Structure formats: structure tokens, C-alpha cells
What does this fold into?
Amino acid sequence: MSRKLQLVWFKRDLRVADHEPLAQAARRGPVLALYVYEPSVLRAPEFDACHLDFINDCLESLRDALARIGCPLLLRTGECPDVLQQIHQDHGVHTLWSHEETGLEVTYARDRRVSAWCRTQGIEWRELPQFGVIRRLRSRDGWARRWDLRMSRPLMQAPEHLVTLPAWHNLSEVAAAHPVQGAAALGVRGHKRPQAWRGGETRALETLHSFLNQRGVDYRRQMSSPTTGFEACSRISAYLSWGAISMRTVHQACEERRREINLAKQAGAAVDPRWAGSLRSFSGRLRWHCHFMQKLEDEPRIEFENFSRAHDGLREDTFHAERFEAWCAGQTGYPLVDACMRALHAGAWINFRMRAMLVSFAAYHLWLDWRAFAPWLARQFIDFEPGIHYSQVQMQSGTTGINTIRIYSPIKQVQDQDPQGLFIRRHVPELASVPLAYLAQPHLMPATLQQRVGVVMGRHYPAPIVDHVTAYRRARERMAAVRRAPEARSEAQRVQARHGSRRSGLPPTGQPDSRRKPAPDHAAQLSLLPDETTDAQSDPQV
It folds into this structure.
């Protein structure tokens, strides 16, 4: 083994299992492991204290796992490549190892600086893929097959022992000199989320196991409702986003569980029939996860610009600050919207159907431009993944040009997803005494009933900030007008060619024409009808 230092730079890949950069570095020389608290990333409008808390849990777990194989974890604060330069001056870095990252402009710019620094120093930077995202992809044709091949490769085993530099042999001393940094010390905005899930590689594996063997049995039917989705959904999305578990690990565990169930059925064992459909749906969502990340990889400008430039100017001219603030606070006067937002305040997670409703309400009922609320909403999601987030926010806002426009009714969603009002009463306790018949629209209660139950509109709970029927009609008319324009059709063809799915296992895409609604890129997430269609067949949240 060479004595040339191999520096493993951890970013959104906070684990030791199935970590190819770590495994490759271990074969080539003494290893140092590094994580950097980068002020530019921490100050990004999408970053929140809930993300840092989860990351720090993962770092504690990573430090313990590395210590067991003899490797220290350096935690530094500063900008890259300044931190790398200091380590190089002190120890002489031969090779820098990391995973590829499909991130925000701030991390993309950082990576360009790191690449330039490596060239000037004569240091090789080895970036390896960890998702199904293909860099410098020229065509989506064949993407799904390449995803399958990548996810079917054998898992990379964690090294049994790592050689490190003599100066770092005292691991407890290194840990004391490189402590985990909290939000206050780093100046990160946000607050504690008392109900947020904790991070770490061990918790990731436990969460996946409980889903595949117990919680996920009725996933297909229960994922849409906030009353059942918190348990029925896998809840591994944050672990994937921050890399406490690899996509390949999840995919292979799911496929192994499907084989196990099929073998049990063939042997005549009693198997709950719901498992087959639930695991099939979950497996599809793993592919969707990377499908949407690929969009940002292929076209980074979607962080800032509409997919379809024909939609430019649609909402940018006005910003309703009071509507935005009411939406953020969970004070819109629409109980399910407010319950979902307050659930995010407490736990930084909500199921996909309710995320889509929140964005739909902001984009259509409140007529807010997605750029006005997307960064704020990113801070509420503990599982924020840039490629998924910006693709989905634009999709639910109607600016992709290739997806049908679905405007969720926050009233009908109560009937469909919280018919007993359990979720609303839990998160909007001021409505606890409202009769079920009025819970979706408490403003319709007669004044005498408001007095009797102690919920006076405008005093104990706000009246609706917009009228649903009026807002829906106006939004539909505006969106239809844009879609009829010739430039919208040409833009749809361009977006479809670059970003549309190419596989029967994923919902197909299509271009709009004068005879029919455009086929969805994402399983009818949206429609130009009132919200009366069934739930999406696929979504990227797992």
C-alpha cells in the first residue's frame, strides 16, 4: 500500500456501508475522513436548523463507525477549498475522494472551485456516483436500464480496518478537537422540530427494516392520507437525502423482500396479499427519486427558472406578502392546509399527497410564484433533496409545460384524506370542538353555533384568506390561456425531449395538442379538473 494520503470528503453521504469512495481510498493508502461545515451552504435560503440537527446525528453515527475501523473524522468549519488547502499544507493530500452531488447552485459553484484547486495543486479528485443520476447525459433513452444496472451491482462492503496517519491515531483526542457544531454556533436559521426523526446509519437501517417487514404492508393504500402516511410511508427519504443509507442498499433490500414473499407464496405459506402491490409501488418510487434528480443534473437552471419558458411572467409580477405569511404560519383558514403546515413546523415531514396540496394551494389559490415559496418550503422538509424539490415544486405549480394541471381542493381533500378530522384536530387544536360536518369549512358555521362551540371565525381561527371557487376558476382560466399559446406547445416538446421518462415502468410523458389534455410525466399529479381523480400512481417521495 502506498503511503500517499487519501482524503475522503463526506458531503451528503454520511455512512460507511456501500460507500465506494471510502472503500477505494482504503485500498490505496492512509485515509483521513473529512466533513466541512461550509458557511455558504449553511446560509443558503434552503438550509435550516432541522437539516443541521439531522446531519449532526449522522455525523455522530459516522464518527463512531469510522472509529471502529481505526479512522478519525475531521470536522472543520470554513469554505472549500480553504479547508482542503490547510489539510494539504499540513499532511500532503495525494487523492481527494467523494461522491458526486446533484445540488444547488451554491454547491455546484463550490465544486467548481474545488476542481480548480485540485488542478493547481496536482491532486487527483475522484468523484463516484451514489444515485442513479448520470452525469453529462446526452439523452434520456436507456436511462432506466442504466439505473437498473447501477442499482444491481454488488454493495461495497465497509473496510474492516483503515490505516491513518500517526498524528491521528488518538481518535478520542481527534474527536475532542473536532466537535459537532450546533445551529447557534454556526449561525443557522430555524428552530428545533420536537417530532422530527433522528439521523444516523443505524436508524436508517432500522427504519428500512421496519417498513419492509411491518409498516409497509398497506403502503399503497395508506400513503396518501396524513392520518396513516406517517407510519405507512417508508420514512427513509431523509436518510437517502443526507446519505445515511445508499439507494442501492434500499433497492436491493426491497427486491430481496419481494423475492422472499414470492417464495413464501409458492411454498403455500400465508402471505398478506397487500405486500405484493405495496412493494411494487415502493420499488417504482425509488426509480422516480433518481428520475427527478436527473432533471436538475441535466438542467441546473430549474432552480431559478421555469422548465417551460412559455410560463415566464405568469406570476412574477405580483407578490401577495400577507397570503404568503398566512400560508407559512398555517393560518389560511383552510384547516387541512393549516394542519399540514403546522405538522411540518413540529416534525419537518409530511406525506407526498399533502406536500402536493400545499404547493398547489400556494400556486393556484394564492397565486404565488414558486420561486417565492420554494426555498422556504425546502427549509421545512427534513428530507430536502434539491433535484426532487425544484422539479416537484414546478410540477405542482404548473410550469413544466408537460404535466397536466391539477388544482387540489383543500375542502375535498379533508373528505378524502382526513374524513374523521383526526389529523386536523391534532394539529389545529383550536378547531377541536367544531362539529365534523363543518370541519372542512368552519367559516360556514352559523354564528350561533360558533358561539356555542367557542370557535368564532376571525377571533379563534381565521376566515379563508381566499374564496376557493373564485380562486380555482381564475387559476384554471389563466393556466389554460398559457397552455393554448403556440410557444407553450413548442416548449413542451423541448422539455419532453430533455426530461420525459422513457420506460413503461414509469408513467409516460406526452405533448399537449388541441384534442386532448397532455399526458402526465408523473402519473397524473395534476389535472385541469377539480380534484376528483385518484392519487398518483408514482411519486418520488419514499
Q: What stands out?
A: The mean pLDDT is 91. The radius of gyration is 24 Å.
